[in-house]
């Protein structure tokens, strides 16, 4: 093992949490090493998560619109055909350009990227094993940050086989459109990738153990999303259990027990198991280093991201909270700033969540159910449908609504959107909440006309009891 000059900070894992933390730490004057086991930077999000899925969601949306809605705009295109290899190549190019961009950012910020698998050696030492088997040891003068993210959860009744029973990683790269895709788990991944393959022509059956999809969402939004996916052609088996899934000649068979206790055997071409992700701590040497896990096997940290081992910190999917890239990024910045003696802070009450279906579902803050439980009669809810928004109508996007939830003294408690570009629309609600704003603040802000954000303003007006256009 060769020894190198100490860094101030060693970050393990170059996903959105780790690489952002590395940049911010470097900006603050620390000498930073960033260890990554994969050949490209960016982690799950950039390589096999957020970005490639969004590339395919966009492509499949174009395909769907070309087939289903261009005619209504007076555009005749003849027979629309899918070229899946081109669609996949475009996705790969998007990923490639962005990961190269991250490498450029590391160079620009003077972050030393070390390729290989990092593991804690005790104290402030980190071992890095590279693909050729050689090992080097790095030491950190100030801090080691764990940002190794998460991996898909495998269920014993439907173990991954890498080709037929798969995780999101493989479902982003099917070589042909599956005739019938069974999705286990109606969460973010299942609904997004299910949408992709449904739009491209697959029959999609979703098996979910709970009675509702996206249980963390406001019920009204969850229900609207459910109905819209049914209209897209999804078949849902809610409250159902997967008894087994096994690969057979030409596909797979999934045995389920339905909510009424009856059993069904579903023959399909592929099975996507998307029942959540777990923190990725395998081989990280946590135990030897004295880093403890909580009851859900997440790394225990305090509000300064300190683990139970001195000098070792953790952020992102490894620790409690929603497993979202932007949450990890915020934590990376806050961690670096705290380390530099500044007031780094993450407002966990204002972290948006988005399901990138079409229409999209986006939210921030409390659901109506949570708000009523906490604040009872003091809660005011304002809703505005996109059917009454001029821009949405012009776009041919009438489905959905904005819901603004205000609490004591009109303070914004939550905003929930189901509709076109909800992912972009939610940003102003997040800003308003970050500033401790009220429904009136949103309602009195001038919004350009005709735009989709006017629906947010109108929902805020509705919460104030004075909606104009509905
Ligand atoms: P998820 O936690 O969003 O949803 C998992 C779903 O599977 C839940 O509805 C759960 O009730 C169900 N489930 C669990 N065990 C089951 C079983 N044995 N049979 C049937 N259903 C079962 O997890 P998902 O979709 O795998 O995503 C993983 C993580 O990745 C999430 O935490 C999410 O935050 C993140 N993600 C975020 C995206 C975004 O921000 N748009 C996109 C993709 C992933």
Describe this structure in words.
By secondary structure, the chain is an alpha/beta fold. The chain has helices spanning 16-27, 43-48, 50-68, 84-108, 168-171, 188-199, 219-232, 286-289, 325-339, 368-375, 390-395, 422-434, 439-443, 454-463, and strands at 2-3, 7-12, 32-36, 112-115, 117-122, 125-129, 135-146, 150-152, 165-166, 180-184, 203-208, 235-238, 241-248, 251-257, 263-268, 270-273, 277-279, 312-314, 353-355, 360-365, 380-385, 401-406, 412-419. Helix 6 (188-199) links the parallel strand 10 (180-184) and strand 11. Helix 1 runs parallel beside helix 9 (325-339). The relative contact order is 0.12. 1,4-dihydronicotinamide adenine dinucleotide binds next to helix 6, strand 11 and strand 19. 1,4-dihydronicotinamide adenine dinucleotide (NAI) binds next to helix 6, strand 11 and strand 19.
Quickly describe the structure.
The protein has 470 residues and is of the alpha/beta class. It contains 14 helices and 23 strands.
Give the key terms.
five-stranded parallel sheet, 14 helices, alpha/beta, eight-stranded mixed sheet, 470 residues, globular, binds 1,4-dihydronicotinamide adenine dinucleotide, single chain
């Amino acid at each position: 093992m060769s020894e190198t000059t100490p860094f101030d900070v060693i970050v393990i894992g170059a996903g959105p949490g780790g690489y952002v933390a590395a940049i911010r730490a470097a900006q603050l004057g620390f000498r930073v090493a960033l260890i990554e086991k994969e050949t490209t930077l960016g982690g799950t999000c950039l390589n096999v998560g957020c970005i490639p899925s969004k590339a395919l969601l966009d492509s499949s949306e174009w395909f769907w619109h070309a087939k289903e809605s261009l005619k209504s705009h007076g555009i005749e295109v003849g027979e629309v055909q899918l070229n899946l290899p081109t669609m996949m190549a475009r996705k790969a190019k998007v990923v490639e350009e962005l990961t190269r961009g991250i490498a450029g950012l590391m160079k620009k910020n003077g972050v030393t990227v070390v390729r290989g698998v990092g593991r804690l050696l005790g104290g402030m030492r980190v071992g890095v094993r590279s693909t050729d088997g050689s090992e080097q040891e790095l030491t950190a003068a100030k801090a080691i940050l764990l940002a190794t993210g998460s991996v898909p959860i495998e269920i014993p009744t439907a173990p991954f086989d890498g080709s037929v029973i798969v995780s999101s990683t493989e479902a982003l790269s099917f070589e042909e459109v599956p005739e019938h895709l069974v999705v286990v788990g109606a969460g973010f991944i299942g609904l997004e990738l299910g949408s992709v393959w449904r739009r491209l022509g697959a029959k999609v059956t979703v098996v979910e153990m709970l009675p509702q999809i996206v249980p963390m969402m406001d019920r009204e939004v969850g229900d609207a999303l459910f109905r819209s996916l049914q209209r897209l052609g999804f078949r849902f088996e809610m409250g159902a259990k997967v008894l087994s899934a096994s690969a057979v000649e030409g596909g797979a068979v999934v045995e389920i027990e339905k909510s009424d206790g009856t059993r069904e055997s579903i023959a399909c071409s592929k099975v996507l198991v998307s029942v959540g992700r777990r923190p990725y701590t395998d081989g990280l040497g946590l135990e030897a280093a004295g880093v403890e896990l909580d009851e859900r096997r997440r790394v225990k940290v305090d509000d300064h991201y300190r683990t139970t081992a001195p000098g070792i910190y953790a952020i992102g999917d490894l620790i409690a909270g929603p497993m979202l890239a932007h949450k990890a990024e915020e934590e990376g910045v806050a961690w670096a700033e705290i380390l530099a003696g500044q007031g780094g802070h993450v407002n966990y009450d204002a972290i948006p969540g988005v399901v990138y279906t079409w229409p999209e579902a986006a939210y921030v803050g409390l659901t109506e159910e949570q708000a009523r439980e906490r604040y009872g009669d003091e809660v005011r809810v304002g809703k505005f449908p996109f059917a009454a928004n001029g821009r949405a109508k012009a776009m041919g996007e009438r489905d959905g609504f904005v819901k603004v939830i205000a609490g004591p003294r009109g303070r914004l408690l939550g905003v929930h959107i189901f509709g076109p570009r909800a992912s972009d629309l939610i940003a102003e609600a997040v800003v308003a909440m970050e500033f401790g704003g009220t429904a009136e603040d949103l309602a009195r802000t001038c919004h350009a006309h005709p735009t989709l954000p006017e629906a947010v303003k109108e929902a805020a007006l509705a919460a104030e009891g004075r909606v104009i256009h509905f």
